[in-house]
Structures are given as structure tokens and as C-alpha cells.
């Protein structure tokens, strides 16, 4: 039997060791020990971790790499970021957005990030970002699954042409219905926007992903309406609430009612640890709130939680590198998820969980799945997060599209080892 690619002696996220992965015609055809046969290329994993590709279920690609245009966010707040983006929007060109987005996609591939859901602002009547990212989606399709969300950044009703523009964006081919109910002028308008947007998605057979309750206000409770509308319209499994940071400030009694409603409606939750810890609690002195939503509690209720990167070098966040392991690391620290089981769960929050939220087909490490995966310089998923492990090989449809040498350091110390490999410090090694 012959294969296009054969990976030997891999460790899998579920703990299986000395596993081979055989690929043919862009698909995984076998995952088991001791696969024999000829292959166009053989990769010796050497007991290192092979994972399905990283997935970012919440990003803003129309704004990425725009840091400093037209100025910096001096306060570091969410609202100044929104205001700054409003200043930048009239200056955007399709060509510039495409160029920055493609550069970011290069970075993403180098990090083993092969699926991204990007919100794209529809409050610019020119729909510059929409036009640009539709072009980018087509260009990167051979190596990244890019899903686009029609996002009314300035409010569906607060911005006079947002509702019309959102429909225009969907007609142009944008995949998902977005919203931002907490940014409407009133709570009533916010709830009304949730109902209207969910009805639009139901009528068109689309998914929904709303920026929901990205606030420190415990009375921002649009996730309740989102769960209710999901239930009413039969959108189970097709709806995501992103951020949900107000839940960090809600009283426990109300949350004890809310979490079962979210679980019952099968609404996905998307936290954005790097951004939530940066933008929330800005009005606090001390004690300061972390702002990230209640991830461990959601896990106990069976809610599908994923972590998004959200921003990289843009009006809201001046850092970021496209590394979903950095996102997972921040997520588990902020949530104080420090048991071994919880840390493994954090890895799932940047792989299998966002893949489920996005409805990705053929995702995983099983026969029949797309031959998409990453070889990491790590012994297991916990070590991958601890080290932000080097991506030694990134595979898309059975072809290596990115590779790196292992990260090692040469020492010149008498009586000490010549080479230090950070992955050799895993427990038990």
C-alpha cells in the first residue's frame, strides 16, 4: 500500500502513543501503530505530539496589523478602540485590507492555525472590509478555512445603514450573521436586534455569532435573549455568544439560572482571554475584575467553550502573534484552570471546541478526516501550552506547508549538557 504522507511514532492529544498517521489524496486513511507501506514523504515524529490544526473562532481580520493607523489607542479601552476604528474606516482601501489580511494568514499558517472565523465590519457603506475579505477568503482557501461574520460594529440600529448593509454583505457571500446588542442605545434595542438577527439567520439557514455582553455591567444580559431566540427558532448548535464578559460580574443566583438556558439551547460560548483580561475592569481601581466569562462553570454544564485570539496589532490590542497556544495559556491562567485535566481542556478550547462552533467538516485525527494537522515540539497537550511549542511541521490536505527546526539552545558551561531542549523538561523525562 502506498501513501502520499506517512507520519511515524506520534503522540496524539488523547494520550495514545507510537501512532502512525497515513494520508492519501488529502485525507487521513489510517491512524494506528505500525503502518507499513511506501510513502511519498515520511515524517518521524519521534514521540512528539501531533494535533489537529489550531482553530480561531473569533478574530477581526479587517483590522489586523493596522496598529498605529491613524493613531494609537492611548487609553487602551474598548470604547477608544471602537472610536479609533471609526477614524480608520474611511481611510481603508480594499488593497490595503487584503495585503494586511494575507500577511496575517502567512503568520497563521506558520503557527499551525488553519481555520479562522473573522468578523467583518458592515457599518462602512462602501463595504470595503467585506469586499476585501471575500477576496482573501478565496485566495487562502487552499490552506486556511476562513469563515466571515457580518458584524455591525456600530450597532444594528444605532448605525443608520447597518441593517441594510448587513443584508448586502450576506448577499455578497458572507457566511454568518453577527451582532453587538450591548452597543445599541438601549437594552430594549439590544434585545430587539438579537431577535431580528436570529430571525434573519433562521430564514437564510445561516449560523449566528454575536458579540454579546462585552461589558463589565452585570445587567447586560443579552445572552439570555440570545439563548431564548435560539430555542424559539430551533437554531440549536448554530449560535455562538462571543465574549460574554458581563457574566464575570453577575451574581451567582442569576448565573445559576442562565447557564442551564445556554446549555439547553446548545449555544456555543467564545471567550477571548487576551482581550478580555486587557479591556475589562478598566473602570475598577482595586479589586480589579478579570472580565473573562465563567469558563469552568460552563464546562460543568456541558456548554461548548472555545478561546479566540480576537485581535493582533490593531486598535484594540497592540500585541499578539497568531499563536493559539498563547491564547490557551492566558485562558487557563485567567480562569485558574490549573489541574491537569483542566489544562488539557484548555488545549481543546483552541482545537476541537472551536471547530465544533464553526461547523468545520472533516476536522480531526481519524480515518476519513482531512489530512490537516500539526507536529509540535512537545510531549503532550499540557506541555504544548506550557512551552508554546514550536510547530515543527504544518500539514494541509496531506502536504507540508510550513516547517521549523526544533527550538534548542547550545550551552558553554563546564560539566553541564551541551544542548538544552525545552521539551525535555516534561514531567517524567
From TrEMBL:
InterPro entries: Amidohydro_3, Metal-dep_hydrolase_composite, Metal_Hydrolase, Metallo-hydrolase_Enzymes. The keyword Metal-binding applies. One of its GO terms (biological process) is cytosine catabolic process. Pfam families: Amidohydro_3. Signal peptide: none annotated. GO terms for molecular function: cytosine deaminase activity; isoguanine deaminase activity; metal ion binding. Keywords: Hydrolase, Metal-binding. Residues 41-401 form the Amidohydrolase domain. This is Cytosine deaminase. It comes from Stappia indica.
